[in-house]
Amino acid sequence: MAIVTVPRVLREKLGEEGAEALVVLLNEALHHERNNLLGILEERFERRVTDEGKRLDNLITEVEARLNERITEVEARLNERITEVEARLNERITEVEARLNERITEVEARLNERITEVEARLNERITSVEAKLEKQIAEVEARLGERLAGVRADLIRWMFLFWVGQIGTFVALLFAFLR
């Protein structure tokens, strides 16, 4: 609050109480004017803020509409481009798939041919090995038969000698006990 001093001449004319009352009156008037001025300024400020808010809202709405329009355009272009790329890729995939199927068929045919050749060679080898093994088995059986016959003859001879020895021993023991 502003300090108001009353000049001495006026103070003498009004008196001490009158000078004080004049200061209070002036201070109240100043305070009242300040409040009125603040109210007017506050009202103007509110109006200006409201106007600026409306202007900004309108501007935001316009910008939003333009951006939505651009987004829609870009989205349409991108969808169109994606469709084109997808079609090209599907076409390339079909071509590659056809080439791979051809190669697979060729490789399969070559492998089947090679498998048939290898199978024929293996069958020939198996047949020849089988014949050799049968011949060897027959030879081994013949030798084994001969050896078994020899062993059998030796065994019979040794058995005969054993039994003759046993009978001789038995007879000797009988004579020894009977005498």
Question: What would you note in describing this structure?
Answer:
With 179 residues, the protein is an all-alpha fold. The chain has one domain. Helices cover 96% and strands 0% of the residues. It starts with 7 loop residues before the first helix and ends with a helix. The model has no long low-confidence stretch (mean pLDDT 91).
Summarize this structure briefly.
Keywords: Coiled coil, Membrane, Transmembrane, Transmembrane helix. With 179 residues, this protein is an all-alpha fold.
Please specify the SSE layout and strand pairing.
Blueprint: H1 8-178
Keywords: Coiled coil, Membrane, Transmembrane, Transmembrane helix
Coiled coil: 68-143
Protein name: DUF1640 domain-containing protein
List keywords for this structure.
179 residues; mainly alpha; 1 helix; elongated
* Overall number of domains: 1
Uncertain stretches: none
Strand elements, count? 0
Shape: elongated
Helix content: over 70%
**How many helical stretches?**
1
Terminal residue distance: 173 Å
Give the class from helix and strand content and strand pairing. Answer: mainly alpha
Rg computed from alpha carbons, rounded to a whole number of angstroms: 66 Å
Averaged pLDDT, please? 91
Largest sheet: none
In terms of DSSP E residues, the strand content is under 5%
Elements, N to C (H/E): H
